[in-house]
Design a protein that fits this description.
6-stranded parallel sheet, 5-stranded mixed sheet, Dihydrodipicolinate Reductase, domain 2, 8 helices, binds NADP nicotinamide-adenine-dinucleotide phosphate, 11 strands, alpha/beta, Rossmann fold
Length: 250
């Protein structure tokens, strides 16, 4: 499989390095400032099986349309574009190609989410335990809570009957028993830590995922590229993970 990288910022460069380590050929790099090409066209996509987008939210719809018009499969790892989801899905359907997207391509994080789902189901029956979460990220991060924190909160709310809504912001009152408190801390250079806790009078159970660097996202995006190569339709990491757990590799 050959890939074209769209966007050569921090993540594009990380994917480039990870591809070399995985023996995947990067046949072109599209980026306004760096890379082998400036735009997505026949020349930049020549020979590519899958294009991997790590750019900016405002570029995603145009990139998807351009890649689809050249009948290439696609990994969209850029976050914050879901307002254009309908148009993106239409472009992929019209082209008859494949696309996979996720706000977190790390296989470790996706396994962590499965563990949280199972833990939430178990603690649903253990009413003595309250549930909480927090996440830590570097001080350059522009959003809070993280997209992964939102996904974790959704999983807990779907599986713990006594929790009805998530509260991410500061509260100037007692937290209600049916509220899930999820805090965000921004400091220093922390690549990303997520913690979910279950707390009773007697003990605390904490489950954490600690990212060491960006490599996990890059490896996951490349595995997803292998998986989506030749498929038709729009997929998410949930689809990839289902096959992954059954030993089906991309
Ligand atoms: N899904 C995941 O697992 C995951 C993990 C990490 C990050 N992300 C997301 O991935 C995105 C990129 O992150 P990053 O840290 O690599 O950002 P970054 O360092 O800012 O890199 C983005 C790059 O894309 C370029 N670019 C902008 N528009 C483009 C276009 N139309 N075509 C080609 N290249 C274009 C930018 O060029 P200029 O600077 O010249 O504009 C820049 O070089 C963000 O949305 C981030 O949230 C997702």
């Amino acid at each position: 499989m050959k890939v074209s990288l769209i966007g050569y910022g921090k993540m594009g460069k990380e994917v480039d390095a990870a591809a070399r380590a995985m023996g995947i050929e990067v046949c072109s790099i599209v980026d306004p400032a760096e890379g082998t090409h400036r735009v997505i066209d026949e020349s930049s996509m020549r020979g590519a099986d899958v294009a991997i987008d790590f750019t900016v939210p405002s570029a995603v719809l145009g990139n998807v349309k351009a890649v689809c018009s050249l009948r290439k499969d696609l990994v969209v790892a850029t976050t914050g574009w879901l307002g254009s989801e309908k148009e993106v899905k239409r472009a992929v359907a019209d082209a008859g190609t494949g696309m996979i997207h996720s706000s977190n391509f790390s296989v470790g994080v996706n396994i962590y989410l499965k563990i949280i789902e199972e833990a939430a189901r178990l603690f649903d029956r253990a009413e003595l335990y309250d549930v909480f979460g927090y996440e830590l990220h570097h001080r350059q991060k522009v959003d809070s809570p993280s997209g992964t924190a939102r996904s974790i909160a959704e999983i807990i709310l779907a599986n713990v009957e006594r929790k009805k809504r998530a509260v991410f912001d500061a509260v100037d009152r007692k937290i209600e028993p049916d509220e899930l408190h999820f805090a965000s801390v921004r400091a220093g250079f922390i690549p990303g830590t997520h913690v979910v806790g279950f707390d009773s009078e007697a003990d605390t159970v904490e489950i954490s995922h600690v990212a060491r660097n960006r490599r996990g996202f890059a490896l996951g995006a490349l595995m997803a590229a292998r998986w989506v190569n030749g498929r038709k339709g729009v997929f998410t990491m949930n689809d990839f993970m289902q096959d992954y757990f059954q030993g089906v590799r991309g």
